[in-house]
Design brief:
Rossmann fold; single chain; 5-stranded parallel beta sheet; alpha/beta; 14 strands
């Protein structure tokens, strides 16, 4: 009996030690206010959803994960202020976010000096175009999306294209890759125009590129501007195949463009066509599980962006599970990630690739009858 009593006491002591253990703090750097909040707020919710899942499963060796959230206010300079607070006050071991390329670039110097890993949820290539020791990102590179699009255009003999790119950093980056990669892919650019993503009408630019009689028009922008272009093309009876970029697969695109969305095509993560994936696709189970959890949490407005924070938190957690919580060990383990099946793709990172997603991580979608349809 005495031995049994000692065992019970030891068990209670162990439970108390686990419950009293300090949580492992991750910093969540998101655009919660300002013009980029439509990306930052859902990204925060998904990060919290992933952390809740991990804690429900026992955390890391009994230690809970705590996501300490900071608002960048959609301002790169404020992102740096928020980051420093997470590093110096909250003592986080890694950063999830930020959610805009400008904020990520502004945070580079601070992250490198602090020697804390950051897994950004941004679409632009800039944070990882030049490999930086402490910086990673979960969305596909812009160059990867262009490659996916060009593979489709080649396969369908749509080799003369017109470009319609936003005059912001995202649009300019897409424009640069579209031009530089076209020649090596046997594609000719026959016309090009740009627009302010805040413009309410792009009919003039569409009409100008249509005169060149391209076999396809490629639009490179995110947000409502892409839907406006689709509507304008329909209103002007421009029947040239219209392609959007990998940032457009979003429930809002179909809602805003209405019937004009039908027939438009674009690269996307598998998330937007999960139930259409073959049973043999290793991502199918993962993506369907994500969607179920997303809906159970009461979240709506699923988009191709939705999985980025889930994958970012999981990459950091997997690294800590393998190497502990010391920041450099976490960084090294993230960089050594192989065959992680995520929502946004299957990740294989390396010292020269801090994104880790190939062109095979994307599929081509088209809108048909107001629904996303996987192009096989």
């Amino acid at each position: 009996m005495k031995r049994l009593g000692l065992m019970v006491l030891a068990w209670f002591a162990a439970c108390l030690a686990i419950s009293a253990a300090e949580p492992i703090r991750l910093g969540g750097l998101f655009d919660l206010t300002g013009p980029a909040q439509q990306i930052g707020v859902p990204t925060k919710e998904v990060a919290l959803m992933m952390v809740a899942r991990l804690n429900q499963e026992g955390g890391l060796n009994g230690r809970l994960i705590e996501l300490v959230i900071a608002d960048t206010q959609s301002d790169p300079s404020q992102a740096v202020v928020a980051l420093k607070r997470l590093l110096n006050k909250d003592k986080v071991v890694a950063i999830i976010g930020p959610t805009t390329t400008g904020a990520a670039m502004a945070c580079m110097k601070t992250i490198e000096e602090a020697k804390i890993p950051m897994v950004a949820c941004v679409g632009g290539d800039a944070p990882v175009k030049e490999t930086r020791k402490w910086v990673f990102k979960t969305p596909q590179r812009t160059s990867t999306a262009v490659e996916c699009l060009f593979k489709y255009l080649n396969a369908n003999k749509l080799d003369k294209i017109a470009l319609l790119c936003a005059a912001d950093k995202f649009g300019q980056e897409g424009d640069g890759y579209l031009k530089s990669m076209a020649a090596t892919r046997g594609i000719t650019i026959v016309a090009q125009e740009s627009f302010d993503p805040k413009d309410a009408d792009m009919t003039v630019q569409l009409s100008k590129v249509a005169v060149a009689k391209p076999s396809a028009i490629v639009v490179w922008t995110i947000g409502s501007a892409g839907a406006i272009v689709a509507k304008n093309a329909g209103q002007a009876n421009i029947n040239i195949p219209l392609f959007q970029c990998h940032g457009q697969p979003d429930s809002n695109y179909i809602k805003l463009a209405g019937p004009a969305a039908d027939g438009t095509r674009m690269p996307s993560t598998r998330l937007m066509a999960a139930e259409q994936l073959p049973e043999s696709d290793p991502q199918r189970v993962v993506v369907l599980d994500f969607i179920q959890t997303y809906r159970e949490r009461g979240l709506t407005g699923l988009s191709t962006h939705s999985g980025y924070a889930w994958d970012a938190v999981q990459l950091v957690f997997n690294a800590m599970k393998k190497a502990g919580t010391e920041p450099e060990a976490v960084r090294d383990a993230i960089e050594q990630t192989k065959n992680y099946v995520g929502v946004s793709g299957i990740y294989n990172l390396s010292a020269s690739d801090h994104c880790g997603l190939s062109v095979d991580s994307l599929v081509m979608l088209q809108v048909a009858g107001g629904q996303w349809q996987l192009i096989k």
